[in-house]
Amino acid sequence: MNALIAQHAQALVEQWRDDFVGVMQAMGDFCPKLEVDLSPPSRNVEMLWWNQPLDLAADAAIWIGTSEETWSVLGQRILAAAGVESSGPSELKDTYLEVLRQSLGALARAVGSRLEREVTATAGVEQAPPAGVAFGCQIKISAGDQELPRIAFHINRDMLEALQDYTRQAAESKVVSRPAPADEGTGDEFSARACGTLDLLLDVEMPVSVSFGRTQVRVQDILKLITGSIIELDRGISEPVEVIVNNCIIARGEVVVVDGNYGVRINEVMSRKERLQESRKYLLPASSNRH
Question: What is the per-residue pLDDT across 21-42, written as a single tens digit (0 to 9) for each?
């Protein structure tokens, strides 16, 4: 493994470490201490393995292995924070895997932000890594004064090579030509160049979502949700919904049905000042639990 690919591997595992701690803290108000050890993990320990592909390449994948003692302690910490004092192994395992999936989703978003492209954590599965995986390391973990068995982290070569390729492409895309001096070209030529730039932007795709309402739910109530549970929002059924583009509220409207699909009929397009005010409210921590 060359030095550059090794750097990508280390950066990836360190990013996941931070995301995992962040999810643990958000779900259970508990912050375990994780420390990356780049020495290869032992393959003789029985572990719960999770195989997580990322859509960087066809076979790009990460494997994370955890001993039963470790996932039991972490699962118990989360459930205890939700007021669940007694749990069986299946509940503890499911709780740990939920933390793991959320942390890997956060990892995918962080990688996408760094590479300036959308990266998705596709459906994962319980599966051990094959022999000869390109990169493997250990993660020391402690819960307070309790030292837990280490977590194993593996990355295959497809993932590392994809990271290297996309990092190079992102760096190359930032290289821009020197702007022409102000006195070069006529006003008409400048307008033509500006229009050409605008034409390029018109093809850029932006994420559009619709907010039906918001609410705040305690973690212990979220963990009790089952099929058929109802979450009450802060908005009446007759009130307008919000149209959001790239985390910015741009309009309000009413829900309609078009050829069997939901749609929104725009009733009000917001001014720039209103967009700024409403977006600040939308991004407040209290509004982050949106359903």
Answer: 998 888 888 889 999 999 988 8
**How many domains are there within the chain?**
2
CATH number at residue 276: 2.30.330.10
Q: What is the domain-level CATH number for residue 110?
A: 3.40.1550.10
Using CA atoms, how far apart are residues 244 and 276, in angstroms rounded to an integer? 12
Domain that holds residue 266: 208-287
Axis-axis angle for helices 89-115, 3-28 (nearest 10) = 130
Give the side-chain half-sphere CA count within 13 A for 5.
14
Strands 48-53 and 61-66: antiparallel
Q: Which residue has the tokens 């954590």?
A: 121
Of 24-33, 96-105, 282-291, the range with the highest mean pLDDT is 96-105
- The pTM of the full predicted model, rounded to 2 decimals, is 0.60
